[in-house]
């Protein structure tokens, strides 16, 4: 069986927006709480650790958290900026009108963008009403980046974002199904987590698609129904 139907992502559409509300915290309670507090603290000029570095393996949720932070910042009236290796170099230049910067996949930045992030650290440290959260795939001391930037990554708080275990993901799916009034047969969470998408936004999108599919066919959510839905998506 294929691990991922080729057209499934097109059929399901885009995953839901990444927010703190739909992030499965599990063992990441402290970094999530720090990030939740950050946007409000910056907006009110309260004393706070304004430099944070998040690291974790691919799929751990660090990108989700950066987007969630920007979403929360926007709702508190902050000008927020999400930056990744795909963004133009000009976007990395410090702008006094921007209060919250997030930088993703820092180890994938080219040298010019690494230099720009180094400068961002210096500028944010000098401006009280600004904050910078950077994310990467490893702890600061082993990051394959410029030495001066590697030093900056450890300037503020450093948190490892722990990946969810399969049991955590299954528990999250069961809870999300209950909130939707959806009764899952016991084997469905295990089947979804171990055979298909492994990131939580995609798993939740699958759950929503399955809910809709079962309602349209007026059938209980069972493993045969789930397999039928995937068969139709492959057509």
From TrEMBL:
Looking up Pfam families in the UniProt record yields:
Bac_DnaA, Hda_lid
The Chromosomal replication initiator protein DnaA ATPAse domain sits at: 19-158
Protein name listed in UniProt: DnaA regulatory inactivator Hda
From what superkingdom does this record's organism come? Bacteria
- The species this protein was found in: Cupriavidus pampae
**Which PANTHER family does the record associate with it?**
CHROMOSOMAL REPLICATION INITIATOR PROTEIN DNAA, DNAA REGULATORY INACTIVATOR HDA
- Hda lid domain sequence ranges: 166-229
Q: Where is the signal peptide?
A: none
């Amino acid at each position: 069986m294929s691990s991922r139907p080729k057209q499934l992502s097109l059929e399901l559409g885009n995953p839901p927006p990444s927010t703190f509300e739909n992030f499965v915290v599990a063992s990441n309670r402290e970094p999530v709480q720090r990030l939740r507090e950050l946007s409000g603290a910056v907006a009110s000029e309260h004393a706070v650790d304004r430099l944070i570095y998040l690291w974790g393996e691919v799929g751990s949720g660090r990108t989700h958290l950066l987007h969630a932070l920007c979403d929360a910042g926007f709702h508190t009236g902050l000008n927020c900026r999400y930056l990744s290796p795909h963004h133009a170099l000009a976007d990395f230049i410090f702008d006094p009108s921007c209060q919250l910067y997030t930088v993703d996949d820092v180890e994938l930045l080219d040298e010019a963008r690494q230099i720009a992030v180094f400068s961002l650290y210096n500028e944010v440290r000098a401006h009280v009403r600004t904050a910078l959260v950077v994310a990467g795939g490893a702890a600061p001391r082993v990051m394959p980046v410029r030495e001066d930037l590697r030093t900056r990554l450890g300037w503020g708080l450093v948190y490892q974002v722990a990946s969810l275990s399969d049991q955590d993901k299954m528990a999250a799916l069961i809870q999300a199904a209950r909130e939707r009034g959806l009764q899952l047969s016991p084997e469905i969470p295990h089947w979804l987590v171990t055979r298909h998408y492994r990131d939580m936004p995609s798993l939740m999108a699958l759950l929503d698609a399955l809910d809709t599919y079962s309602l349209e066919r007026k059938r209980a959510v069972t493993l045969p129904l789930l397999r039928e839905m995937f068969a139709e998506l492959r057509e």
